[in-house]
Design goal:
Oligomer: single chain
Helix content: over 70%
Strand content: under 5%
CATH architecture: Alpha Horseshoe
Order of helices and strands: HHHHHHHH
Number of domains: 1
């Protein structure tokens, strides 16, 4: 918990180099939990901005996934958030085409009212997931 508070303080005070260094010492699960907790608590876009900053220096499937879940869940009330989240989810799969969990997450975009993933694409994707 102390790590989450330190991360929060670094990001809110725009000490992004220190925040990046802290994130480098976290597991993926820890980082995901910390950043989502902070986003749900504050509903601030600053945490998404931090993830974008990370993406600029090291683009990965995981960071696109994190950007996507931030936008699709705690920040979904922002105009265009689902579309941007869908974009990040697609980019995540482009970086790691074999990750079944990323494909399962992409199916979420077929279930939302905006239906960004159409039924035909969702069916093809679901079949790929079931094969794994």
């Amino acid at each position: 918990m102390q790590g989450k508070t330190i991360l929060e303080n670094f990001i809110l005070s725009l000490k992004l180099i220190e925040a990046k260094t802290l994130v480098d010492g976290l597991t993926k699960d820890e980082f995901e939990n910390y950043i989502l907790d902070l986003c749900y608590k504050s509903e601030s876009i600053i945490y998404y901005s931090f993830v974008l900053d990370l993406l600029k220096s090291r683009e990965t499937a995981f960071l696109h996934y994190i950007a996507s879940i931030i936008l699709a869940h705690p920040l979904c009330h922002i105009e265009g958030a689902y579309q941007a989240a869908f974009h990040h989810a697609q980019k995540a799969i482009n970086w790691d085409e074999d990750d079944v969990e990323l494909k399962e997450f992409l199916l979420f975009f077929n279930a939302i009212p905006d239906k960004l993933l159409n039924d035909q694409e969702a069916k093809i994707l679901a079949e790929k997931v079931l094969k794994k």
